[in-house]
Amino acid sequence: MQCLVHRIPMRHPADTGGLLRLIDGGTVAAGEIVAILGKTEGNGCVNDFTRAYATAAFAGAVAPRLGIAAEAVPARIALVMSGGTEGALSPHCLVFGVRDGGAPVAAKALAIGTAATRAFKPEEIGRLPQIEATAAAVRDALAAASIEDADVHWVQIKCPLLTSERIGEAAARGFDTATEDTYASMGLSRGASALGVALALGEVERSALSDRAVGRNLGLWSGRASTSAGIELMHNEIVVLGNSRDWAGDLVIAHDVMADAIDLPALKRVLQTLGLATPGQLDAPAAARVVAVLAKAEAARSGVIRGQRHIMNDDSDIHASRHARAVVGGVLAGTIGRTDLFVSGGAEHQGPDGGGPLAVIARRPG
């Protein structure tokens, strides 16, 4: 098998033109597409309906080419939409496909696996049931894609959040939820999902996990998880990216962990691993080899970055996650030389506090 990756600019959240040109032009068949990751210009908060809008638009666009109803598309294709393109970040989507054929290369090549959990009850979101179900689904995706734990470089998850209606529904059945703050529920869901990845990959011990640990024990984290919460689903949608000897093609992925929001050396290490070492910004030939950049962004709860005070957590007008995306996006764009980067905010249990994982997919030289 061979993993295909195409990066497409988006003029608005429902812009599916680039995807349809890929399909209708014969670059990728609709049946080969297994995942679409989108970065939309929404606010990334509870009321960010650009995610649901984009999900519906992409499902509706690809459905006729698959010969199925639009509502059946999410069972075939993982649709992961992440809101927030603050600063100079550019709205875009990443289309992942799997093509049969091709001899495996001597080195490991990019591989992709997808899976989904069951639908969660509101009272399970941000708690152990979500952690355990996520871990099981990640293991299923790894097995299906023939990716070993050590070769996993990125696990992208779209997870649910709590609304007032969902909280009320649980209460009507006699259950409490992890929080009654709908915005806080996004962080708890992201955190529980990330801990599920950490559990599946052996980054944390099961004995260290509990409902209370989610969102509180920040010493527990995954260096390969990227989770994004949204109102448009009640289950976890999972996309695992790694390298495998059972896959063909010229694409490869590498990752590292940013210790804080300005940890440029972490990106430099990833680029060096991929044969893209540079003292400054990548030149045009090197930049052309970079297919996708994925990163998490988080405002440090300490309120400082390397000893200097930041105000991201104190701004009542713009949420801290929006500041963080803009900062990390700028740091990465300065070296990559491009702004269509998949930078996701809210890094609870995804890297150390104030930092976060990052990964780059690139073509091998030649």
Structure description:
The chain is 28% helix and 25% strand. The protein has 366 residues and is of the alpha+beta class. Strands 1-4-2-3 form a four-stranded mixed sheet, covered by helices on one side. The protein has a four-stranded mixed sheet with strand order 5-8-6-7. Strand 2, helix 2 and strand 3 form a beta-alpha-beta unit. The longest helix is centred in the middle third of the chain and has 19 residues.
What is the count of DSSP helices, taking H or I runs of 4+ residues?
8
What overall form do the CA principal axes indicate? globular
Please provide the count of β strands. Answer: 14
Distance from N terminus to C terminus (CA atoms, Å) equals 20 Å
Uncertain regions: pLDDT < 50 for 5+ in a row? none
Percentage of residues in helical conformation: 25-40%
Mean pLDDT: 95
Based on the structure, what is the oligomeric state of the protein chains?
single chain
Succession of helices and strands:
EHEHEEEHEHHEEEHHEEEHEE
Classify the secondary structure makeup into a structural class: alpha+beta
Radius of gyration: 19 Å
- Summarize the main sheet: 4 strands, mixed
Strand order of the largest sheet: 1-4-2-3
Please state roughly what percent of the residues sit in beta strands, choosing from under 5%, 5-15%, 15-25%, 25-35%, 35-45% or over 45%.
Answer: 25-35%
Write the topology of this structure.
Blueprint: E1 2-9, H1 17-24, E2 33-40, H2 50-66, E3 78-83, E4 92-99, E5 109-116, H3 128-145, E6 152-160, H4 164-172, H5 182-200, E7 225-230, E8 237-244, E9 251-258, H6 264-273, H7 284-289, E10 290-297, E11 304-305, E12 308-309, H8 320-336, E13 342-345, E14 356-363
Parallel strand pairs: 2-3, 6-7, 10-13
Antiparallel strand pairs: 1-4, 2-4, 5-8, 6-8, 9-14, 10-14, 11-12
Helix pairs in contact: 3-5
